[in-house]
Every structure is written in C-alpha cells, then in structure tokens.
C-alpha cells in the first residue's frame, strides 16, 4: 500500500519534471533515425567530397546495419539518460531536505528507495518499448521485419543492462549528498564496464555482453550469455541492498 | 508516561557534543517552549526525537514509544522543520493529499482534511499553484498544515514562525495556541516574545544541557528580580549612555542593558535603587522621558541563565 503511494508520487514526478518525456523522446528519436541512417548512409557519404569512392567499396546496407545502428545508439544514449535521471534521485532529496520532511512520516526508507528504482525502471521500460516499436516499423519499411521474438529479447536485454546503471547510480546517489559526486562515480563505472568489455575473459560477465547476446539472437545465433545475465541481476539487487543498508544508517 | 520523555540523551559529532546528557519531560496537552541560543542543541534534539538522527547515548520516548528501537511513533507525530522544503512541482493541495496517503487516510478524509488545512494555513487561494513559486512564509504555513494533517499526538515545531511577517506570526501562534489540550507541542525557538505568548512550559538549553525547565509562570516567579526601565529624551543619548555605564559600579545594580534611549536596570535592592536613581539622574542633568519599575521578562531570565552569549530577539 505504502509502496503504491510512493510509486505514484515518483511516477508523477518523472512526468511533471519532464524526465520521462526527455527519456522517451530521445530513445524514440534514435529508434526512428537508426534504420534511416543505415539506409541513407551511402547517399549521405556521396554528399561528402570524394565520398563516391568509399560508397563504391561499401556493400549495400542490410537489416544487420540497421540493427547495429539501433543497438549502438540506444545503448549509448540509454546509459547517459540512466545516469542523468538517477544521479539525483536520493542525493537531491537529502540535499534539499524533502527526504527529511517525508521520512518522518510513516514511510519506510526501503520503500522510499524501491519506489524510486521501480519508477525509473518503468520509465525506461515504456520509453524503450516505444523506441523498439518505432525502430521495428522503420526497419520493416526500409529493409525487412526483424524476427519478432528476438527483437523483443534484444530490447529486454538492453533494458536489463540499463537497470544495472540505474541501480549503481542510485547507490552512489544514496552514498553522497551531491548528485554530481554520484554522476562522477557513475561515469567511472561506465568507463570500467567499457574497458572491461574489451577483455573477453572479463567482458562476458559484464552487462554490455547482454546486448551482444541480444544482437546475436537477432542474427539467428543460438549462443547465450547467461553469466552476464546473472551478474547483471546480482549487481541490480546488490546495489539496491547496499543502498538500503546505507540509507537506513544515514542521518537526514 | 508523558508524551515526551528524554533521559540523558547524548549526541556527539566527532569531538563536538551537540547534546550532552539532556533529560526532560513534557506534560501531555501542553505547549513546551524549547529555548536556547544558536547552536545550543535545539534542532539536534528535535531531529533525534523525530527519528531523523540517532543518539550517541541515552533514551527517549515519544507518545509512549521508544524512538531508538522502533519507528512506530511516526504515525503519531507531526514535524515542521526550520526551513520546510517541498517538491516544487507539486501544488499545496497535492502535497497535503500525498501526506494523507502516507498516513493511510481514505480519499474522502483526505479531501476534507486538505480543504480544512489549506483554509487554516490561508493557502486556499493558491491551492492549485506550484509550490516552487511560493514565498518562504507561504512554505512555512504549508509546513504547519502538513505537520497537522494526521492530528498528531505530539507536534514538533522547529522555529515555526521565524520566516513569517508579524501578521503571519500572530496567526500561526494563535493556531499553535488553539492546539493546547488537543496535542502536545514541542516548539523550539529563540524568539522569547513568542514563547511568552503561547507556551505553558519552558525549557532552556545551553551547550547541549538543560539549564532549567519549569512552567512559565513558575519560572517568572522563581527568577523574579526587580528591574527599572528608564528612557531619556532625544538628544541626551550620549550623556545617558555614559551615566548608565557609571551606574554599573553601584552596589544595588545587578545588570544593565542599554538599547538606544532605553535602559533596563536589574537591581538587587529596589528601595536603594529608587532612592538613588532619580537623584543621580538629576545630578547628571539628564532629561528623562520615562521612569518605571518593571517586572522581569523571560528575556531577563534567559539572559541571566545563559549569559550574554545567547543572541536573542
């Protein structure tokens, strides 16, 4: 009951402060332009002086290029949006004093945190679903329809990988009173995951590998990446658990 | 058990002892004025009693419930911080409704309570405006309204009228006064006039320790000391100041405070003071506009107990 009250407030906040709107518009925009960019890449290249020579060497664009564009753009901007929307979730409330005026009321701190995470997760789920629908439609028009179950699986895996960044940034937002400190540590994590991703022995355990798994599924590959899934889910749970333990001890 | 009971409560921030063994009891249905200079430990005490902070040592009970090991008392208290902050994107009606939801009120109860409290706080006209555009006074009034939403057994108010203009201050103090008997009010302030106006009981804190706790009338009686107030005519201020300074060495003078043309002299022998004062003033060729024997105010008692380090209004 209290969870639903708090979740309602968090969702309303995401709506009123335009954070949901910005997230969905950015992701939908990239969902739309990614297949377009793949399709129009040769024409765009021709407009660059001397570009004709490169176009002649390039194979004609395929559905694989459209999906690669989509995955790259949604992943990059998704991570950035995850960082920006979650860096102040707890720290800003502590800094401003709204956490104090709310948490003296009968609202457990665990619910306060969980409702924030759930609201952000839902916001990204809806935004990503919209982006996926738009990208699917444009890919179908410009190339061919991607395999639907694999398309859904790819987007679910992208969403899960973004939840890792949301969870970790929320943890940093709980630890620090400044949202910029939380954002700074979030960037360090992004750097660490990107650097680690290029080392195969480590990369197969990192959230980025979920996206590789999703892309492989679309290509019809049967390869799986369960370790990355378990590590990602564990990171989300551990982040929330650590945030809760730390927040319980904090003085507001 | 009294609605607020504190036993040897301590709060240390590193080497700083914000609270150093505070012990006090607040009787049910009374308005308790918690007085002290800046940094005395007033806000720290309220933060501990509302569960926002944890004590280093000691025990405390609010509404009969142990505040250290449980949060069950949250349903039974109201809290107004010194500078109340709200979600700027909400309207006051939405914030009050959200407060009601957190306390588990039904939709009908929330609607009625929100309307009543907006009226009480004088915010009905702006109930649909975003809080982000509110003045500090409006936020303070909304803060009082949200603290009263659940009809708390114990209401904690941290400097409740510090941001208000005189009219708003009068209204809020009257509102607090009306709560007498309905709930126990624990109000921290450094404005002594407000305490004199509404509080039944007064606790004075300094350096994290309780200096005195008593009913206001009892406190005034206990610390009654005769005092005289003198006011000089315009143009005599310089001469008046020098003369007042010279009085400090007189045997019958306890303390002297000078505020422009008005001097307040607390004496230890009223008859000696009455005999000497006017005679000496005439010798000094001073033109006095006013001369009266006054009863001591809470401010006199506060200054006597705390010393002059307490900055007060």
Could you give a short description of this structure?
With 252 residues, chain A is mostly helical. In chain A, 82% of the residues lie in helices and 0% in strands.
Helix and strand topology:
The complex is a heterodimer of chains A (252) and B (313).
Chain A lengths: L1 H15 L2 H29 L3 H7 L5 H24 L4 H6 L1 H6 L5 H34 L5 H28 L3 H19 L2 H4 L4 H11 L7 H24 L3
Helix pairs in contact in A: 1-7, 2-3, 2-4, 2-7, 4-7, 4-8, 7-8, 7-12, 8-9, 8-11, 8-12
Chain B lengths: L3 E10 L2 E11 L4 E5 L6 H8 L7 E6 L2 E2 L10 E4 L11 H11 L4 H14 L15 H13 L5 E5 L7 H13 L5 E6 L2 H7 L2 E6 L2 E7 H7 L4 E6 L4 H11 L5 E7 L2 E6 L2 H14 L4 E7 L3 H9 L7
Parallel strand pairs in B: 3-8, 3-9, 6-7, 7-8
Antiparallel strand pairs in B: 1-2, 1-4, 4-5, 9-10, 11-13, 11-14, 12-13
Explain what this protein looks like in three dimensions.
The complex is a heterodimer of chains A (252) and B (313). Chain A contains 12 helices and no strands. With 252 residues, chain A is mainly alpha-helical. The model of chain A has no long low-confidence stretch (mean pLDDT 92). In chain B, a hairpin with a 2-residue loop joins strand 12 and strand 13. Chain B has 2 domains: 217 residues, Rossmann fold; 68 residues, Alpha-Beta Plaits, CATH 3.30.70. Chain B has 313 residues and is an alpha/beta fold. The longest helix of chain B is centred in the middle third of the chain and has 14 residues. The C terminus of chain B is likely disordered. At the A-B interface, helix 1 and helix 6 of A face helix 2 of B.
